[in-house]
Amino acid sequence: MLLAAATVLVGFIVLIWSADLFVAGAASIAENMGMSPIVIGLTIVSMGTSAPEVLVSITAAMSGAGNLAVGNAIGSNIANVGLVLGITLLIAPLMVHSGCMKKEMPTLILVTVGAGILIADDDLSQVDGWLMIGTLGALVIFMLRTQQKDEVLVGEAEEEYLPHLSPKRAWLTFALGLGLLVGSSRMLVWGAVEIASTLGVSELVIGLTIVAVGTSLPELAATVASAMRGHTEIALGNVIGSNLFNLLVVMAIPGIFSAATLEPSVLTRDYPTMLGLTLLLALAIYISRLRSRSMDGHAYVGRSIGVLLVTCYALYYYWLYVSL
């Protein structure tokens, strides 16, 4: 048990550090190839924060722990809204750009509902997995075409820090980050499975709790840092982009590698919580927009919503506890 716990802890530390190396190397390679900052920000940097979830999901699926991967995807989305955004709102209120209310948030709701329809039969098949991946591809193309025309997002994305490494150093950093990501994800999955076996709980619960919170730490760091610098649109965008990626890639991987039969509690407890928190966030943004007296169409979400989100997250953990 102690060895498994230590392996999980070391795995988390290396996983988060290697994700930063991976993003820095990939972003520098793209920059050296002539890609613009906005394209790098919308693709490599946005998706790079989900690299830990992706590698853990692949490793879990290949190890026959498909429910751990599904729990990681759903649990990470619950943590992103309830924990990451909740804590961020307690630190600083978020200004939500009108474009987010018209495009990004509705897209996340549609994808969340669509994912629920695909897994409604308690089965995650290869067809389901490829449908999710195909949807992501269409979304990325659409977002690149529309958001490059958004002057606000372009300006904020270009203000975000992008590493500037020489071609040789960029490739070495990328290779080192990728190698450490693979190795640390294997450590994490092994330790998580051992802990689940020792405690007598399901791999799904471990994925929803320990693994989900650990792999959401990069989003927490990025979101809090963006909010404290005043880049609140990017702070919310980080969470929405990560949740879309988790639903359309991280959760799709178990189905693609080997069809997974889901535990009943996924549809009766975990998915409804994820959908409920997503709708709660959308409702809070909509009400904030109605109450806002500003003429710019922005909504300002404050600390009271942060308290509500963190409370809902704590209640979900209590639900998990009494369900064991």
UniProtKB/TrEMBL annotation:
A GO MF term: calcium, potassium:sodium antiporter activity
Membrane topology listed for this record: Multi-pass membrane protein
Every Sodium/calcium exchanger membrane region domain range: 4-144, 170-321
Main location as per UniProt: membrane
Source species, domain of life: Bacteria
Transmembrane residue ranges: 6-27, 39-62, 74-96, 127-144, 171-193, 205-227, 239-259, 271-288, 300-319
Localisation: Membrane
NCBIfam families in the record: calcium/sodium antiporter
Protein name, UniProt field: Calcium/sodium antiporter
Species, as recorded: Mangrovimicrobium sediminis
